[in-house]
């Protein structure tokens, strides 16, 4: 299908992009920001989105790159998934991001799709929003009025809806670099290698003296936004690492993961019913903690 007609704007600077978006917001125009286009272009072709204009950020190199800033790693919004995967800083300082990014679609999509675009798209079936929630990332946005920061817990508002206001553009994400003692894993259940997650689990586990001292668990596709498995995070504290992944008669980790689906509202679609997704959330959380806790 051919997209509905729209104007095309390709600003040469971030200031110009903010100006264009600000003017559109003032006039009430529906304007979409184009980064890699891997999520937006299919919506346009299916006429599920019909903006009056597209603002292409492709000529803004200042929005691309990975920077180690000590307590966090800053990833520019236009950094492609492939660039994220190839970054030694990402692999060494924020390995959970690398693990999840490696599962995004296929190499062709990863060479075009962007880190910031996948976040701003706010698809709960996307892999990276759950990682951002688990790691307590901070989103840096810019408008004609200046910059502001949005915590991940406040960024994902609803299905395909973020906290970005009209006239704002995401310029990058601050990803906390957790210290020694942390282990990570991203567990994903999907139909094919290129498919969206039916359910995914992002796990960060801090180990000390043979026990799990802290866990952060983000769930993919278990509601209209990514979800933190708070019940599991509370129940897993103090559990022996040796018990993680145990197949014995009593597995305290499995017991803790029984609450993985608490507070979730999993969708029903052609691929899975809510009760199946709830089951997957419990099983995959157990697996993810078992690997991250090693």
Automatic annotation (TrEMBL):
<protein>
    <submittedName>
        <fullName>Carbon-monoxide dehydrogenase medium subunit</fullName>
    </submittedName>
</protein>
<feature type="domain" description="FAD-binding PCMH-type">
    <location>
        <begin position="1"/>
        <end position="180"/>
    </location>
</feature>
<dbReference type="InterPro" id="IPR016169">
    <property type="entry name" value="FAD-bd_PCMH_sub2"/>
</dbReference>
<keyword id="KW-0285">Flavoprotein</keyword>
<dbReference type="InterPro" id="IPR005107">
    <property type="entry name" value="CO_DH_flav_C"/>
</dbReference>
<keyword id="KW-0274">FAD</keyword>
<dbReference type="Pfam" id="PF03450">
    <property type="entry name" value="CO_deh_flav_C"/>
</dbReference>
<dbReference type="InterPro" id="IPR002346">
    <property type="entry name" value="Mopterin_DH_FAD-bd"/>
</dbReference>
<feature type="region of interest" description="Disordered">
    <location>
        <begin position="245"/>
        <end position="273"/>
    </location>
</feature>
<dbReference type="InterPro" id="IPR036683">
    <property type="entry name" value="CO_DH_flav_C_dom_sf"/>
</dbReference>
<dbReference type="InterPro" id="IPR016166">
    <property type="entry name" value="FAD-bd_PCMH"/>
</dbReference>
<dbReference type="GO" id="GO:0071949">
    <property type="term" value="F:FAD binding"/>
</dbReference>
<keyword id="KW-0560">Oxidoreductase</keyword>
<dbReference type="Pfam" id="PF00941">
    <property type="entry name" value="FAD_binding_5"/>
</dbReference>
<dbReference type="GO" id="GO:0016491">
    <property type="term" value="F:oxidoreductase activity"/>
</dbReference>
<dbReference type="InterPro" id="IPR051312">
    <property type="entry name" value="Diverse_Substr_Oxidored"/>
</dbReference>
<dbReference type="InterPro" id="IPR036318">
    <property type="entry name" value="FAD-bd_PCMH-like_sf"/>
</dbReference>
<dbReference type="InterPro" id="IPR016167">
    <property type="entry name" value="FAD-bd_PCMH_sub1"/>
</dbReference>
């Amino acid at each position: 299908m051919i997209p509905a007609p729209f104007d095309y704007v390709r600003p040469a600077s971030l200031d110009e992009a903010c100006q264009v978006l600000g003017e559109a917001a003032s006039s009430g125009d529906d304007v979409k920001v184009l980064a890699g286009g891997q999520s937006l272009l299919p919506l346009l072709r299916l006429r599920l989105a019909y903006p009056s204009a597209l603002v292409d950020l492709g000529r803004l190199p200042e929005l691309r790159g990975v920077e180690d800033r000590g307590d966090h790693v800053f990833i520019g919004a236009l950094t492609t998934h492939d660039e994220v995967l190839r970054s030694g800083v990402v692999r060494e300082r924020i390995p959970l991001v690398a693990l999840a990014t490696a599962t995004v679609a296929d190499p062709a999509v990863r060479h075009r799709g962007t880190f910031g675009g996948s976040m701003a798209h706010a698809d709960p079936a996307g892999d990276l929003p759950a990682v951002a929630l688990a790691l307590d990332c901070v989103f840096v946005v810019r408008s004609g009025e200046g910059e502001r920061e949005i915590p991940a817990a406040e960024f994902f508002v609803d299905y395909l809806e973020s906290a970005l206001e009209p006239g704002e553009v995401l310029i990058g994400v601050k990803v906390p670099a957790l210290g020694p003692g942390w282990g990570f894993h991203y567990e994903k259940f999907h139909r094919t290698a290129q498919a969206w997650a039916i359910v995914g689990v992002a796990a960060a586990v801090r180990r000390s003296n043979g026990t799990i001292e802290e866990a952060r668990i983000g769930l993919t596709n278990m509601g209209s936004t990514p979800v933190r498995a708070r019940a599991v995070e509370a129940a897993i504290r103090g559990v022996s690492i040796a018990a993680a992944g145990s197949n014995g008669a009593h597995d305290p980790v499995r017991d803790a993961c029984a609450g993985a689906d608490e507070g979730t509202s999993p969708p029903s679609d052609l691929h899975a019913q809510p009760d199946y997704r709830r089951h997957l959330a419990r099983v995959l959380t157990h697996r993810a903690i078992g690997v991250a806790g090693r």
